[in-house]
Design a protein that fits this description.
By secondary structure, this protein is an all-alpha fold. The chain has 2 helices and no strands. The protein has helices at residues 3-36, 44-89.
């Protein structure tokens, strides 16, 4: 085995070890962040249910907003029609 092969093997070992260290550091950082946000990383099913609840809540709020706008537009149109009818009917 020559020096070039030894250096190549050493580089591969260092690269794999560095990748494992980076993976472990990233996992620890993400776990810490999620725990600080109040998300239990040990129970992913619970987190998925929480996210599904938040999604449903958002969709409900969007539906209420959309229906509220439809009602507001309806009231405006009916008021405008009533104003025009009252103007045409006269005193």
């Amino acid at each position: 085995m020559n020096d070039a092969e030894i250096k190549r093997i050493a580089d591969l070992v260092a690269e794999k070890a560095g990748g494992r260290i980076a993976d472990a550091a990233a996992e620890k950082a993400l776990s810490t962040l999620l725990m600080r946000l109040g998300i239990d990383v040990d129970d992913p099913a619970q987190m998925q249910r929480d996210m599904a609840f938040v999604r449903n809540w958002r969709q409900s709020a969007e539906a209420v907003k959309r229906q509220g706008m439809i009602v507001a537009m309806g009231v405006f149109v009916v008021g405008l029609i009533g104003l025009i009818w009252a103007a045409l009917k006269g005193p």
